[in-house]
Amino acid sequence: MYAAIYTRNARPNAGLFQAQCADCKRLAAESGFEVVGEFHDDGHPGSGLDQLLALARGGNVSAVVVRDVNRFGRAFDAFGRVMTTLDEVGVLLYIVGEGRLTDTQRSVLGLMRVLTDCGTEQPRRGLRP
After folding, report:
1. Which of 11, 27, 35, 78 is 20 to 30 Å from 19 by CA-CA measure?
2. Which CATH class is domain 2-120?
3. Which parts of the chain sit beneath pLDDT 50?
4. What is the strand order of the sheet 2-9 is part of?
5. What are the residue ranges spanned by the domains of the chain?
6. Which pLDDT value is given to residue 126?
7. pLDDT for the residue 114
């Protein structure tokens, strides 16, 4: 089975980049995956994430490995968009220190996303409880 690795740093940092890669490669090997792609972004998720998702959409990997979910972006909507894409194409997500993201973990993260979205909505005028 094949996996791709995604890493991201807030700003260029070779040491952090290498540590993320090493952690992800270790988890991929422990999980029985052959790494066929490595993608990286500095700053906000960008072309590296786009390339990773294109690889997943193409059916070329069965798993994505990241150090933590914040690599996809700090906002839940960014994570939600990535998970929607991975779910649509049947690609599993593995997180360093956690292993495979389970259905229960996905549900909890989804609920957190909904709660976050509700907290940022503007109240409607004229509605009473």
Report:
1. 78
2. alpha beta
3. 122-129
4. 34-42, 2-9, 63-66, 92-95, 99-100
5. 2-120
6. 42
7. 62
